[in-house]
Amino acid sequence: MGREDAGACAMMRPVLLILLCCFAVIFGTVCIHPVRGAEYTVGPAGAEFNRIQSAVAWASSGDTIFVASGNYSEQVKLDKTLSLIGSDTGGGAPMINPEKKGIAIEILADGCTVEGFDIENSGIFSGVRISSQGNTVINNTVTNNAQGILLSSAHNNSLTGNTITGSIRAGIVLENSINNLIEDNRVMKNTLGISLDNLSSSNIIYYNTFSNPQNVLARSAASSWQSEGNFTYTYLGRTVENRLGNYWSDYRGRDLNTDGIGDSPYVISNGVNRKDGTGAGQDVVDNDPLMDPIEYYSHLVPVSARAVSAGLVPVSLTTPGSPAASAGLAAGRFLAWALLVVIAAGVLTGAGLVFLNIRGKKTGSSLVPVPAQEQTPEPAAAPSVPAGTILPVPETLLAEGRDEYPAASGQKFYVPQELENKYTDIRYIGRGGVAHVFSAMRKTDGKLVAVKIPISFDEVTGKCFLNEIAAWETLRHKNIVEVLGVNILPIPYVEMEYVPGSLETVKKPLPVWKAVHIVRGIASALEYAHGHGFIHRDIKPHNILVTDDLVPKITDWGMSKVLATEVKKSSVAGFSLSYAAPEQVSPGEFGRTDARTDIYQLGVVFYELVTGSIPFGGESIVEVGNAIVREAPEPPSAYNPGAAAVEGIILKCLRKRPGERYQSAAELMDALAGYLEEDDG
Questions:
Q1: What's the DSSP call for residue 627?
Q2: How many whole angstroms from its chain centre is CA 344?
Q3: What is the third-level CATH fold of 403-497?
Q4: Quick check: 619 pLDDT over 80?
Q5: Which of the residues 258, 414, 576, 678 has an alpha carbon 20 to 30 A from that of 671?
Q6: CATH classification number, 71-224, choose in 2.60.40.10, 3.40.50.1400, 2.60.40.3600, 2.160.20.10
Q7: What is the pLDDT of residues 645-671, one digit of tens each?
Q8: Residue 477, pLDDT above cutoff 70
Q9: What's the pLDDT at 269?
Q10: pLDDT tens readout for residues 551-580
Q11: Which of 269, 285, 277, 176 is nearest to 224 (CA)?
């Protein structure tokens, strides 16, 4: 061996030693996996166990038990560290129902996870009882128990994403429990929302919805009722930053800066809930109460997280110990292993270069880059399209000579060629819901009709279109636009009665007598529709067409919701904010929409007809939404003294609480008839 070879070997020894160390670390980290717990399945049929408690008895600490859809009439006791995961396998979330014989789920061990169950019917007992530490109860529905979830001498637990209803005593109860996190839960329609005794402290309770006859009973002021730090979030379309408290259904404070946070605290006195937002010398429960249920606050990002990402990315409030958190931990380990592999590859590359350079000096050779081979790019594969799929044709590919139907804006629209054989004198009217609307002359009899064609033929739009027609074609009333025909061949389309005008374009204000006649016609249509099991939910001037002699006809029933069970239910939902009822803006406070929602919206239209203005406005959707649920409308007579005769009728339609409005369209028509009788007299 020459001197140069000996020198090369001497230089390589430290490199080889480093390589051996790296390989040892990588092998120990990647190849020797930590021991994972076993997984077991429970189900009514075809699973390893048919009872949850049998699987618990068999399993060891660290194992996971997956429970399929089904009704499990048993009591479950977790006396070892387990993850109990409910899976909807087609029959809904698995239900644990102890049939009033005891606690549905009792958690005695530390570090357990319970997720994805319907837990109900524990009688005089608790749905879930926790008396240990570090457990996670997440995304469960807990219904009809004495106490929904009881924490007794339980510390460092997390309750997240649960819906708790129908509890005889209280939804959530803390007894001698410390450092628990309670967030993102919906606690509704329980006798009492949440209760804390005088030994419970240092708990963090925020971003929950409490809507109960009594929301809170707290014997201790040592817990926090708002987030520890600020969040950015979106509220009614506006991104703002603040700490987050809880939504309390009996909070009556105001929100002058429209950030969705009450300006005054939600308070209690001597452990008894107060319903106003004031009161000096009382224990503050929540300094940052939410104005609306938590569903109205989206894209939550902790302010500290903004340094991690340049953009505001929505984050979930996932807690440690949940499957999502475990997945994140596994991903972190994978990244660590990948980093070690990259380091090892770098060391190997460096060592190879050193060795080759040394050999190159001896032989006189050098490293010469090899030019990359030119490659002819392969043509992109055509996307696979399932058989029978109807693809929309781009306008640029339409055959030459096709007729164009200009809109008022100058934009051109096309009627599919298949329909040009059925109609003549086709003119574009506008867009309604999920479709374009044309006026056309029917070739068979020369009748002028309106033709509605879906904007696109994708599956989602098609379903919305069919739902709209299903909710419309059965209605036959002189004040409802009539559907004349529906077909899906050669393309989906609907033929309707043609009505030339819209209440939106009628000059306002109108004489009161004329407004009353229009409103009475609309109310008559609503009485008929409600009697046939439909509500409209989007009554506004744009959706009220009018004939040349101002006979109103309601159109666009695509927003309708079926009331009668025997009629098909429409899945289309939505509304126009300026005409929205309080229950559409804040359902957690005012309840669900029903026939009285249409009456409120008709009241807004009535108000606009006699005043020329809508009752609630603002410079942003936040201001409009806040005005709808919090502010009283200006009396119509303030704009039009002649409206004083119908002012009482209009303001009753616009009551915030549905129970304070006219309870049916028939009641409203009776009130309007009274005005007409006085006017005739």
A1: H
A2: 46
A3: Phosphorylase Kinase; domain 1 (3.30.200)
A4: no
A5: 576
A6: 2.160.20.10
A7: 999 999 999 999 999 999 999 999 999
A8: yes
A9: 54
A10: 999 988 764 544 433 333 332 344 678 899
A11: 285
Indicate if the pLDDT at residue 329 is higher than 80: no
CA distance 55 to 418: 62
Both structure tokens of 16: 């080889």
- The ranges assigned to domains in the chain are 71-224, 227-310, 403-497, 501-680
Residues 6+ apart with CB under 8 A from 293: 186, 209, 211, 247, 586, 587, 588, 589
Instruction: Give, rounded to a whole angstrom, the gap between the first and last alpha carbons of the chain.
Output: 128
pLDDT at 145 over 50: yes
Query: In this structure, are strands 64-67 and 39-42 parallel, antiparallel, or unpaired?
Result: parallel
Residue 617, pLDDT > 80, answer yes
Question: Which strand ranges, in their side-by-side order, compose the sheet holding 113-115?
Answer: 39-42, 64-67, 83-86, 113-115, 136-138, 158-160, 181-183, 204-206
If you write DSSP's letter for every residue of 498-537 in order, what string do you get? ---EEGGGS-SSPPHHHHHHHHHHHHHHHHHHHHTTEE-S
* Domain range 501-680, CATH architecture: Orthogonal Bundle (1.10)
Work out the mean pLDDT of the chain and round it to a whole number: 77
C-alpha distances out from residue 595 to 536, 601, 629, Å = 8, 10, 18
Q: What's the token pair of residue 231?
A: 């969040």
Q: What sign does the CA torsion over 328, 334, 340, 343 have?
A: negative
